[in-house]
Amino acid sequence: MSEQTAEAAGAEVAVVEDERNLRELYVDVLSARGLRVAPLESVAAATAYLSRRAPDLLILDVKLGDGDGLVLLDTLRGQGLRTPVIVATAFGTVERAVQALRAGAADFLVKPFTNERLVSAVGAALESGRRWEELELAAPKIEEKKASGGELIGTEGGLKDVAALLPRVAASEATVLVRGESGTGKELVARAIHRASPRMDGPFVSVNCAALPSSLLESELFGFERGAFTGAHARRKGLIEAAEGGTLFLDEIGDMSLDAQARLLRVLQEREITRIGGREAVRVDIRVISATHRDLDAMAASGQFRADLLYRLAVIPIRLPPLRERAGDIPGLIDHLLEKHAARQGQRAPRPDAEMLRRATEYPWPGNVRELENFVARAVVLGRFDTESLRVTAQPTKAAPPAEPVPPHEEASAPTPPSPESSSVPTLREAVARAERAAVIAALKAAGGQKTVAARLLGVSYKTLFNKIHEHGIREEVHIA
Ligand SMILES: Nc1ncnc2c1ncn2[C@@H]1O[C@H](COP(=O)(O)OP(=O)(O)OP(=O)(O)O)[C@@H](O)[C@H]1O
């Protein structure tokens, strides 16, 4: 806890442990590091203590004389407790640990543990609590700029109808739900609607619901009042209020927790919000456009997404087709993207030849227009099309079945792409990528699809896991399978 001790000195740690010896051990070890320790022997004592005080860290035994620590943790989180929690358990199974992390624990200790393990877990949890506070209290990361965005190119697969519909959709105040695979242009469409709407001079606030753990997403969206939780030293407006007079774009809405969904439903019904920890309702004038690549109907049928919210979000549903369903649009898109990137990079665009166009239209583009755009941007930098990458990566290997394609541009951008002759022997880069992908999928499965939990199991940050999921093209079904 060396560096962290300085941060943590004087921090208050509440320890709920029914075994006296262990309680005393916590007090001895942690007080020696300059922490203030409140020993509590039961669920009842913990409940009474927490109703009066908000410690900086809570250490919670699972099996307590008068109850279950995880049930207590669940209740406390439900009541809005934001304090980081370490769960200590003698039942060192992965299931129990996963359960603890799912209930919102920052870490878990398997008994018996060493003093060093205790000290390092406490240091890290206090540090993460501090970082979390900083994150919460930092100036809001609001993307409040006017919506910029390109033209919607293409006509195939129903895109022509979408383009024809946009002006009417823009003129209305109706909520819009844009569905489509990743990279099909959902955000592009949302921005186009905003730009053509009477709200065009207002902000376009884009929020990626999958990029933040659910508790953070709620406070980002709804804001909070001073004292709503530890570290909420000042009132802060949320992103919904920041979108006042403009458009709120909720990307990856299928990743929103059920709690946040319930709050959002109230916003849509009543056009007002209540900040976290607040009582006063604040009126808001926003238009909501949301997007998802998930099957929200199936999620609603299985109770993972609120059906009543889905109806309200999808007053105007728009489906964007994957690029493989509109291969005829590919040459036009290539021209458009070449112009865009050549202008941006101040370079001359290479000219596409017939062979490249043939391969490009046959290639399935699992990353859709975004992948095509990366391919074109790379061509502008290189001064030539990396046609070979389309051929190599268009043939999925056994390790990357079509159901879960790995975005090929990752491999295509490798310094030494694998040669066709060596396809039975993976390069080290490929082998590492496969192992990494398998580990991410295994962790997501073990964590029941909860990314916060999976990230902890993998020993990486939430953001790293999020990036890896995208990098390896792991589909959402895998998360919850
Ligand atoms: N029809 C299109 N015409 C021109 N550019 C497009 C088109 N569709 C997508 N793009 C471009 O492709 C890139 C990805 O699009 P966008 O971010 O809108 O996709 P998305 O569906 O929101 O992706 P994700 O679900 O991963 O967030 C952007 O740079 C966008 O401008």
TrEMBL record:
Q: Which UniProt keywords apply?
A: ATP-binding, DNA-binding, Nucleotide-binding, Phosphoprotein, Transcription, Transcription regulation
Q: In this chain, where does the modification 4-aspartylphosphate occur?
A: 61
Is Transcription regulation given among the entry's keywords? yes
Q: Where is the Sigma-54 factor interaction domain?
A: 152-381
UniProt key word ATP-binding: yes
Q: Which InterPro entries match?
A: AAA+_ATPase, AAA_lid_NorR, CheY-like_superfamily, Homeodomain-like_sf, HTH_Fis, P-loop_NTPase, Sig_transdc_resp-reg_receiver, Sigma_54_int
Tell me the ranges covered by the Response regulatory domain, including all copies: 12-126
Q: What processes in GO biological process is this protein linked to?
A: phosphorelay signal transduction system; regulation of DNA-templated transcription
Disordered: annotated span? 392-428
| GO function terms (MF aspect) | ATP binding; sequence-specific DNA binding
What name is this protein filed under? Response regulator of zinc sigma-54-dependent two-component system
Q: Which organism is it from?
A: Hyalangium minutum
